[in-house]
Amino acid sequence: MRTNAAAAQPLLEGAEASQRIYALAAAEEQAENLHFTxxxxxxxxxxxxxxxxxxxxxxxxxxxxxxxxxFTDCILHGCDFSxxxxxxxxxxxxxxxxxxxxxxxxxxxxxxxxxxxxxILTLSGWEGARWDTVVFSQCxxxxxxxxxxxxxxxxxxxxxxxxxxxxxxxxxGLDLRSCTLTNLSAGENLREFRGAIVDMIGAAELARALxxxxx
Length: 215
What we know:
This protein has two helices and eleven strands; from the N terminus they run E-H-E-E-E-E-E-E-E-E-E-E-H. Helix content is about 10%, strand content about 25%. By secondary structure, the protein is α/β, with parallel strands linked by helices.
């Protein structure tokens, strides 16, 4: 776990947690060193919301507008960002565990030192994102739009990439042996996979995508 969020944080629960986040967003103030649990900000407008050294537990941001939001040194556990708009957002030294980001739009976002653990990111969109030292462990990225991503120090461990589109994102040097690679969409001749490390099952899937039948 990367985050150094403080252990002793004032706890805000349910409606109180929701009201505090909304009030801070309206006042364009930072949420700092707080523990939010059970907050529901679904569908709210929280553009450029800034969280620092916070814990967010079982919070709902489904369909929330979070363009330009910032999360620094935060723990996010069991949170729901399904359908949220996180365009041009920034995450630094954060851990997502057991979270749901189905259909979330994270285009042009920047991630630095972020762990995703046991999280669902199906149909999420990451066009033009920038990733530095990011880990996806036991995550479902099926049918995700992973196009045009620039990354370094990326780790994909037991990740489900079935049906994902990786056009314009080089996977050179990545160890994909533990990942599911069925029905992937990529550029001509699967050039994005040149230099990637795959097992026999992954190689067979890539060959099949190229129209080669292996018996």
